[in-house]
Amino acid sequence: MDMLRQIALTAIAPELEKIGIVVQQNIPDSIKDVCNQIQNDLEYQANNVQDIQDLTVLRQYLYTVSFFISLLLKASPERSSWWAESLIYECYSLCKISERDIIIVHSQDTNLEDFSVYPNATFTFGLNYSSQHNTPVKPLDIFFIPAEVKFDISCMALIGHEVGHIYWQIHQNVLDEKVKEAFQKIPLPQDRGEQWELQHKPQQVALHIEEYLCDQVGRYLLGPAFDFALLKLFLFLPSSGSSRTHPPQENRILRSKDIIKCYVDSPSNNCYQLMNKMSQLIDAIYDKLHDFKSELKSSRYDEIAEKAAKEIYQASNLIIEKRLSPEKFEQIWRMVKPELDGFRPPFETVTINKPEYINPTDAIIAATLYYHGEAYLTSNVFYLNSSKPESEKRRILFEKLSEHLRYAISLHRFVKFAQHQEEDFETLKQSNSLWNWRGGKQDTDKLIVTPTIDPNNQYGQSTVDLRLGCSFLVNVPSRYTHIDPASKDNHLSAYYQEIHIPVGQEFILHPHQFVLATILEYICLPNDHYALVLGRSTWGRLGLNIATATTVQSGYKGCLTLELRNLGESPLPLTVGTRIAQLCLISVASPAQQGYVGKYIGPIKAEIPKIYSDPDWVIIKHFVNG
């Protein structure tokens, strides 16, 4: 018996070790409760093993626990999921889904087929414990998001399909009833083989119906951005026929191709030409794929699934036409396009009046139209002013639009909360503060600090307060013997560890520690002013020294990187979102004609130094060689 217990304790040891790591992560308290109760269960079962049967039961339980804990270990809240969680919560709100806990597993693989979700995961794995914090236990949804979504504007919209699985899991009884009703109408075949097949088809048809319905939820949430992303996915990963879990891709491709042409059906609508451009782009790719040009041969079960999905969705409250009418498209485009043109994250409309908050789903729709409809060709300030080669400009623009979009989405809950607070904007406009510089005739005349959080306390007559952002680069000196600033391949990124701290949480800066941080706000300086970044005296008296590189060139756009050092003798907690620095504007003798041209283009997080790109090295190298 001692031998059996020893085997049991040895078997659970790796899981106990993993649980210890998981509970130290930034995960909801209710999930930590589950982990702690799993640990208690494992220890109790291991210590009470009496025979081989007990050991077998423990092994079976360990299999489920190991898979669940491995999912939690793969979650990456510090880096990859800081925007996806916010988008999912916004989608939940639009679908009227009560708030649930979310864990994001951001895959390192580039495979869009990895998109998946485990709805109510603790219940699915039989680990539905009660909370120990006297709070209601929320369902836990675990989302798998492939790595490339992080770098693609439209592919972000595929998250809408996964949210659909949550929505229809909640309404599972509707699906079950519809499948049962559909199969009762099918006459019993004479052939016994067909009879056997018919008995096993309802489950497959139910899965196909759910996939069709999840596509509809994706369209409801993200409109043409979703259909464009779905087409990109299927055209990149072409296959024919259906599988046990998914209906034929051909059916879904043709459905999306037809729908994307119908979102905006009036040539007078501003989005009409953009949608046409996207549609032509898809058609050009589609025509080259001979696999999809043959006639579709759907089985009667495919037809049952499509018909049932259509009937179920028509009876739901998620009506696309009401949410994404032509008038709604016009409103979205009017709000978002100026922000994209101005090369800044679409948090809000920039105005000296009260800003209009931009929803994440609206921002994704507009950004997809903006880039893939090529609206940027005539109006984007970076694209028009950059002297870089055409292909390089397009690459940078696509990369930065994606970064700006993710940054705006990541902060949307904080910004939305802040903008719901009452602000007297009429008094603010009469205060002769720098807030009024937002009202310039064109972007080159404006001082833009976005998002708007607390303008009455943030804007002065000569300075604007800046908040501490979420991104930190912590020095790791033991990885290399030294830093070679002249080498582009000097492993600078490996010399720093990137840390993401959500708004409201603390970063502890230890005595004499040096870190790179960022401001929360994205700033756009006018072409006729440069700026100085100065630390607030309140923090200076606590020993914090910031912004050793204080000058910001005229026309600059982006989040500033700050150099922070704790000169005191005690650890200093820095709360993300608090005002930490001041921006002071100074006029220049000769205004820039085309805005800022420099090494750091539209950054939204702390960036490593790019001193290797300075022209000084070329001069010195030629001098030494000569």
Q: Summarize this, please?
A:
The protein is α+β, with helices and mostly antiparallel strands and 626 residues long.
β content, as a range? 5-15%
CA-CA gap between termini = 82 Å
**Structure summary, number of beta strands:** 16
Mean pLDDT: 83
Low-pLDDT stretches are none
Per DSSP, the total helix count is: 22
Structural class: alpha+beta
What does this protein look like?
The protein is α+β, with helices and mostly antiparallel strands. The chain folds into 4 domains: 147 residues, no CATH class; 168 residues, no CATH class; 95 residues, no CATH class; 193 residues, Deoxyuridine triphosphatase (dUTPase) (Deoxyuridine 5'-Triphosphate Nucleotidohydrolase, Chain A, Distorted Sandwich), CATH 2.70.40.10. 46% of the residues lie in helices and 13% in strands. It is built from 22 helices and 16 strands. Helix 1 runs antiparallel to helix 2. The longest helix has 45 residues. The model has no long low-confidence stretch (mean pLDDT 83).
Keywords:
three-stranded mixed β-sheet; eight-stranded antiparallel β-sheet; alpha+beta; 4 domains; 22 helices; 46% helix; 626 residues
Question: How does the SSE layout of this entry go?
Answer:
Blueprint: H1 2-22, H2 29-47, H3 52-74, H4 84-94, E1 101-106, E2 116-118, H5 121-124, E3 140-145, H6 159-170, H7 172-184, H8 192-236, H9 249-260, H10 272-287, H11 300-314, H12 320-323, H13 326-341, H14 360-372, H15 381-385, H16 390-410, H17 412-419, H18 425-429, E4 448-450, H19 455-458, E5 463-475, H20 492-495, E6 496-500, E7 506-509, E8 514-519, E9 522-524, E10 529-535, H21 537-540, E11 544-545, E12 551-552, E13 557-558, E14 561-566, E15 572-575, E16 579-587, H22 616-625
Parallel strand pairs: 1-3
Antiparallel strand pairs: 2-3, 4-9, 5-6, 5-8, 5-16, 7-15, 8-14, 9-13, 10-12, 10-16, 11-14
Helix pairs in contact: 1-2, 1-3, 2-3, 4-6, 6-8, 7-8, 7-11, 8-9, 8-10, 8-11, 8-14, 13-14, 14-16
